[in-house]
Amino acid sequence: xxxxxGKTGGDSLIEMSPTDSFNDGINGYHQHASSSTGSLQQxxxxxxxxxxxxxxxxxxxxxxxxxxxxVFFRDGVRRIDFVLSYVxxxxxxxKQERRRLYEANLVNVGLELEIEDKSESDDGKTxxxxxxxxxxxxxxxxxxxxxxxxxxxxxxxxxxxxxxNWLSTPFxxxxxxxxxxxxxxxxxxxxSKTDFFLIGDKDTxxxxxxRNRIVYYILSRCSYLRDECGDRDKKGIKRLLNNGTYxxxxxxxxxxxxxxxxxxxxxxxxxxxxxxxxxxxxxxxEQPLNLIRKYYGEKIGIYFAWLGFYxxxxxxxxxxxxxxxxxxxxxYDDNQWSKEICSEEVGGNIVMCPLCDKKCGYWKxxxxxxxxxxxxxxxxxxxxxxxxxxxxxxxxxxxxWKRRQARLEYEWDLVDFEEEQQKLQLRPEYEAMCTxxxxxxxxxxxxxxxxxxxxxxxxxxxxxxxxxxxxxxxxCIIGVIAYRLAVYAAFASIMKDSATSNLQxxxxxxxxxxxxxxxxxxxxxxxxMILNLMYERVAIWxxxxxxxxxxxxxxxxxxxxxxxxxxVNYYSSCFYVAFFKGKFVGYPGNYAYMFGSNLRxxxxxxxxxxxxxxxxxxxxxxxxxxxxxxQEALVPWLMNWWGSRKARSHPESLYSRxxxxxxxxxxxxxxxxxEYLEMVIQFGFITxxxxxxxxxxLLALINNIIEVRVDAWKLTTQFRRPVAAKAHSxxxxxxxxxxxxxxxxxxxxxxxxxxxxxxxRLVYMYTQPDGEMxxxxxxxxxxxxxxxxxxxxxxxxxxxENPPWFNSSIITTCRYRDYRYPPGHERQYTxxxxxxxxxxxxxxxIIIMEHVVFLVKFFVAWMIPDVPSEVKARIKRERxxxxxxxxxxxxxxxxxxxxxxxxxxxxCPPMIYPSLPKHEMLSECL
Length: 926
What we know:
Strand content: 5-15%
Radius of gyration: 36 Å
Number of domains: 3
Largest sheet: 4 strands, antiparallel
Domain Anoctamin transmembrane: 292-878
GO molecular function: chloride channel activity; protein dimerization activity
Pfam families: Anoct_dimer, Anoctamin
Shape: elongated
Mean pLDDT: 80
Structural class: alpha+beta
Strand order of the largest sheet: 4-5-3-10
Main location: membrane
Distance between the termini: 57 Å
Helix content: 40-55%
Number of helices: 30
Membrane topology: Multi-pass membrane protein
């Protein structure tokens, strides 16, 4: 018999066989736990010396004789369902008492513990408490949590095979990976009816994801201390983690991700996920959603199902957007207005008024030739079509996702799932900070509550903080605008030679407008990222200050705060360029200034502001996606590499499964929050401003193909295994997406109408006589005339700022972008009738486009049912079978009971069924 020897704190040694030491220790532990629930001063007998030595000895083991990938206790039979870790520190006695009471109470509820001494850990200071949930505990809490388990094999034929399904063969994964478990009809587990369910092996009946969910439920509700008044317990592993009693709490991965487990009794799902899902070269393969759900739980599975579906739908938007861009490229030579701008006869003879005071000189229209050609790539007739298409696409995406979600709800046994546990289970922080108590009408128990006055005060303070930070964003945007105005003058002065003489610099023309737009967009992106880092902590702090009652309420409050902030942070600069820049400029002699300063409001060049909006969108969107992927992949890897540096020098056999996972990063309860937020912000970029950049869906598609694999890789390799959680939908994000879908129709209609030059060109084209050159003369008609002599001294260029070709004695007028009467007219410098015709056309376009798109959206939403008919039939079939099988089960059970009581004939005693008619009694008896 193998014997374990170890020091017990003094010079004495203890020798026990593994079986004896374990049994004696656990028995002692149970006695210790019983005495811990009250007080040792109430007359309980103290622990025996052998039991005390066991608790102090912690059942040390020679790890060289165990597989480093073992996920079982030392007996190789009982599975490790959860691991707690802690270290001794200066507050050791106080924390040790909490741990003693907490672990004793865990044993009291039936959990089994095994503790690894710090001398056996890789850092020499960390203790590990391994937790196993036996069958009785699992069955009890599976009944409490209403976990669905199989009772009958699914007998409904699967008709989901599509014609020519062989075409999708290259994108498929092996069947055992896609569907790792057989399909069953399921029902909520009932401990009193265990023989009703298909229970083969009790050790494997509940998968590891359900086991760690049950154990975490117990850990969250188990108490560790009674308060001074003695009227309530302090409970929950989260509070123990917050106060440093434990350093970590996590379920184990089943093996190393790069190789299969050597233990035949252990699955290798992590290895399968890494091989078939997390690898980048699997980007064209389908996701093994059933295996993800089995290993990580439904909440994470739903996220990846949504991300994958979103990526698939982006493929269609990317194709159409690319076609629209190609159309703009192919019609490049048909761009009559750009030809006029670039020609020496038209653009070369049009002298434009200065774009800023003092430092900007007069310039020729043909200096904007390059930006005019670039603008045509995005500002053409296809832009209108694509804006309408995206309004319909977003509806199809949301409606088809509802159907996909409904199918997953059925397949993953979430049809009747409501997040009642999240709604009813109080957060430990809420219980700790709320001293008042009242009766809960649902649970009929006294529970803490937050007074209305305190709740209102905290909500008001939280709202004021959010408004303060939003104001900070607006102040930063104003600062960037001021930068644009100030720097434009500097660029105009420095680059006046290249702007006026068409000097080519590294290929494209570098104009003051382009230089200002690119540098301002880069600065704005840096400000956005800095504010995000700062506000994330503020949002968590003010949400904690509000003391939400439940975890679901906490997530919803944090979601609203973070999304509102990031919506303003990411989109405010795009809204400025799209709807404000160039709209409040004035005209020479009557310019508008920013807040009464000497900084004149920005103008759009004759090419329009659309190209600047495109530049802003590309820089912010692309920068965010690239930075996000680098940060998500690189930061966890570096932190894990640094954290495991000591373990790398140890022999491989000394680095146990729980130590390997302990050195990984914690995924956190809000781990999916950042992932959803990132994708929803991207969704806003490709819907709210897509009329300005048809290639946005293509960029998003490329990013998401990488995003799926990066998220899978870091979850599989860089993070501890999250606690499995249920979720039947994407939650509050669904309503946010619906709101953005409606807003996108409005923003794109306004972009086409007011930001692009589409409507002015169409009005000009249809008001001209028929002919091949309908757009001839459009540029000249869109520019108004002003007398140079009438320009105030404060607006005139300084000496030396004007280009060499400018001669004030010859050139007496300049042009500016507007529709105003020329000098000498009786209504000089007031808007012409053409201005009002164009404005009316813009408003009419907005109304017509919005009504058409909304009408189509609502019709499509009405035509597509949220739940497929096949799923409805399956749900009804399953509910019918549950009732039928439960009825037959009760009848068979009664037959057995009657047989045991001596009633072997078909005559049922009336007292057994006092309320049933005679024929029903006989039926039940038979």
